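Ticket reopened. Same input as before:
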Amino acid sequence: GQNIDQPTEMTATEGAIVQINCTYQTSGFNGLFWYQQHAGEAPTFLSYNVLDGLEEKGRFSSFLSRSKGYSYLLLKELQMKDSASYLCAVQDLGGATNKLIFGTGTLLAVQP
Amino acid sequence: DTEVTQTPKHLVMGMTNKKSLKCEQHMGHRAMYWYKQKAKKPPELMFVYSYEKLSINESVPSRFSPECPNSSLLNLHLHALQPEDSALYLCASSQRRDSVFGDQETQYFGPGTRLLVL
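Engineering reply: fixed in the latest deploy. New output:
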């Protein structure tokens, strides 16, 4: 079966660092995506990992360990605007068409 | 440019109405998707079109009917919906990009249509 787990909610303080974890067990794997979604808006692409290791993009970094079925998204120097839902999604490459399998999302609240 | 547009932004319809949602992208992406998203839940895949042909239908009820008139447009026709169909409907598009790291195919989402069925 397909299973992607993330914490439901997290709270952090402005200026701090927060790590959002994602574990997955999927039948296929062709990369892992992180998306940010503000309430009532569309998901926006943050990062993609297909090889083990850390990818850094400004204040956001994403890590992948394929052998452990584990990823995390690291947000540094938190800002109030980072309050959003963060979706972990595994890309399952099925022939001609890709599918994204989403986790349930982590709702992050950044407090002053 | 990674813009996907959707119209309308909001839609209220009765259970006997027929309406359509529209999605457009001009990035030359070969795949387009419809998702349904309920509050505090992740997006649920409904349909995938690849090169203008329906490639995935996730057992969606026939009251939802997708259409891909050309490579830039994707419609979702709605008929005899139920109140539980009220949700945010998201369109996305993607293009496979070969690299030494594998086949990355990032999906870019439109702003969505918020649908309320009365």
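The first strand of chain B starts at residue 4 and ends at 7. The CA atoms of residues 83 and 117 of chain B lie 5 Å apart. Please confirm and we'll close it.
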